[in-house]
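note to self: dont lose this again. the chain is below, predicted strucutre after it. 195 aa total, dont forget to put it in the shared folder this time
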Amino acid sequence: MDISTFFSVFGLIFLAELGDKTQLTAMTLALRYPWKRIFIGIATAFLVLNLAAVLVGRALFMLLPLFWITLVAALLFLYFGFSTLRHACSSEEDQETAPTAADAVRTAFVMIFMAELGDKTQIVTASQAALHSRSLAGMAGVLVASTLALWSVSLIGIFAGKQLVKVIPLCWIHRTAGLMFLVFGLVMVWRLFSL
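---
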């Protein structure tokens, strides 16, 4: 893959995800868990998703009905919305146990994996891989460009979340995040059942 194709795929994916639910999810998770653990979960989810998009392409969407993928993602967003709102203003002393590193990685992986499975960026990655499928280098370039773009957007979200806490009280950030998760979940459910 030549450098211009790499940057076009990177730019396409980066712009598509900037300000999307994935970036907001990364931002919110970074307020609850250590950023390195969040990034491990997010990075692994995107690597698995992009690898699937490149290797399997459209067959993935034929094997897994989009309805069920979207429903599970919507239910996860609703669950995390209610959970975040319920604990929005509880102080750290009120928490019985701190979340473990494994919890942070697992939560980030599941949230991103289910939210992005079948999402526009995975479809774009699959289509770009098909366009560049003449060579293994072309497909690998699409995988690398797409994955690096998604990791970059996620890191921006994580660090923006860390800075936000310096300006806005954590309680209000959690309330806003919980409401956003609920909105994402409800919109996904509405789209599923309005077809």
